[in-house]
Design goal:
Elements: H1 2-25, H2 41-56, H3 67-80, H4 82-85, H5 94-97, H6 117-126, H7 142-153, H8 160-167
Length: about 180
């Protein structure tokens, strides 16, 4: 009796593993950005990400939440983040429109102002697998990542000067070419 039960469990597991293998190996799994997600895909992905960040317990921000930090963070954000995550009162970029999962537009709609800066710092430093979110560790300084994280944690409270800096051309960018005069 016990042998039959164990054999039944083993066979069930083998059939399930074989079914999953066939599902992926025969091209039935959704892999294009336009395909619908797996059932519970987003829920499990967020659950795993949240648990991992909580387990690593990132430290609190060493950067002050003041206008100077916000302005520094705005320059870094424009150069490295805005192409996917957007700017205040601006439409999504073509890159963001073609990504899956869709990158959150951090200044339009649901942002990260309710997340602690330390969580945003962890995501920016380490990246998030299978989302297109790169890790910036070694590419940006810790201070730059913290400045962006503090800016985003306070995105619902930033002063008008910072909003203006966010939509202005990046520092050092060449001026936009003037349109030729119509004859």
């Amino acid at each position: 009796m016990l042998k039959g039960l164990i054999l039944g469990i083993v066979l069930t597991l083998l059939v399930m593993i074989g079914g999953v293998y066939l599902y992926f190996s025969t091209g039935r799994a959704p892999v294009a950005v336009t395909d619908p997600p797996f059932p519970f895909e987003m829920k499990f992905a967020h659950m795993a990400l949240d648990a991992h960040i909580e387990k690593q317990a990132p430290p609190p921000s060493p950067v002050a939440a003041d206008e100077k930090s916000f302005l520094s963070g705005a320059e870094v954000y424009k150069q490295h983040c805005a192409v996917c995550h957007g700017l205040p009162d601006q439409p999504k970029s073509f890159i963001a429109q073609g990504m899956y999962p869709r990158p959150p537009q951090l200044f339009n709609g649901v942002g990260v102002s309710d997340d602690p800066a330390s969580e945003t710092y962890w995501k920016a430093e380490n990246g998030i697998r299978l989302t297109g979110m790169p890790g910036f560790k070694g590419r940006l300084t810790e201070t730059q990542i913290w400045e962006v994280s503090v800016l985003l944690a306070n995105s619902d409270k930033i002063p008008p000067s910072v909003k203006a800096a966010l939509v202005a051309p990046p520092a050092g960018a060449p001026p936009a070419a003037a349109a030729p005069a119509k004859p």
